[in-house]
Write a structure and sequence with these properties.
Length: 316
């Protein structure tokens, strides 16, 4: 049985992925690592929890040794909008933190999953059907750290044989933990506001298309890639994965089918708009489909129905 450490386990993806990993691999085999945000009681009681600051290599090594970890899902990271506001913090966490995790993985022979992002692309990348292997010249600090992270992971695989794998996540939509400081967060906020106030002011403009994915598919991507036959993987870091692409108008129209009174207006934030415009409209994820059988389950209509059902109960 795998012995797994999840860094950033209290974040948007970590809080749900950790619980699913515990269901699959057993609670005691999945150590949740968190740093600044403390977990809920339910999360804390569901299995081992440790303070893990990825910028402290000794602390990471101590937990890996203590639990005899063989697989690290390294989710601790600063997202795009916060990275633009605090580039030094983003560099420290996203690059130095990743380097520390890879070094510990090399010494302790761990496999490592590291999420990259659509943010690893930039304004000179082909916008539509963005290929797996293409130009990556991002103009944001987040993008710089994501491209460097992909390269670092591939380097550790080729040079030291560390089993590194990763996906380029699009915007992730979920209803358990809010995302913290990304450019795609609007696609989560819009559901909360539609249910609470029947209106939403969007910070990205109409016509801004981005790849998106519902959380169950994001979790499936991480687990399936880590379980994939290594002999079949031509790529490592990182695979394009997507489930849908829409702009604010399209998601608002879908929400209106369930909440007819819902209205949306715009107050465009120039920083996040510029970031969004530098990212693909939609990626080609053929390599992930061919190399490890990636196939998302949720499109916009199913996701919207589920989000509204779940949040209507949660926000009552
Ligand atoms: C962000 O918006 O920063 C993230 C991402 C797409 O990487 N959700």
């Amino acid at each position: 049985m795998k012995k797994i450490l999840v860094t950033g386990s209290v974040g948007q993806i970590g809080s749900e992925l950790t619980m699913d990993l515990r269901r699959i691999y057993g609670s005691d085999n999945v150590v949740a690592g968190g740093n600044r945000t403390m977990p809920s009681d339910e999360f804390r009681d569901s299995g081992p929890f440790e303070i893990v600051d990825c910028t402290d290599i000794k602390g990471v090594a101590k937990i890996v040794k203590k639990y005899k970890i063989d697989t690290v899902l390294h989710l601790a990271a600063i997202l795009s909008a916060v990275a633009e506001a605090k580039p030094n913090v983003a560099w420290n966490v996203n690059i130095n933190g990743l380097y520390n995790v890879l070094e510990v993985a090399r010494e302790s022979k761990c496999a490592v999953f590291v999420p990259s992002s659509i943010g690893a692309f930039g304004p000179t990348t082909p916008l539509n059907d963005t290929p797996q292997d293409t130009i990556q010249r991002p103009n944001t600090m987040y993008g710089v750290t994501k491209v460097a992270g992909e390269l670092l992971c591939d380097y550790y695989y080729k040079r030291f044989g560390v089993d590194t794998r990763g996906v380029r996540y699009p915007g992730i939509i979920s209803n358990v933990t809010l995302p913290g400081g990304g450019t795609t967060d609007y696609a989560v906020e819009i559901y909360y506001e539609a249910i609470k106030n029947k209106k939403y002011t969007c910070y990205l403009g109409a016509g801004t298309f981005l790849d998106m994915m519902y959380m169950p598919d994001a979790i499936k991507a991480a687990i399936d890639l880590m379980e994939a036959d290594p002999g079949k993987l031509k790529h490592r870091n990182a695979f394009n994965v997507t489930a849908m692409s829409f702009d604010p108008e399209i998601i608002a129209a879908e929400i209106k089918k369930h909440i007819p009174q819902f209205t949306m207006d715009y107050k465009v934030d120039p920083v996040r708009q510029a970031i969004a415009e530098s990212w693909p409209n939609n990626m080609d994820d053929t390599a992930a489909r061919q190399e490890w059988g990636w196939k998302p389950e949720f499109k916009l209509p199913e996701m919207t129905k589920d989000m509204i059902d779940v949040l209507s109960k949660k926000l009552k």
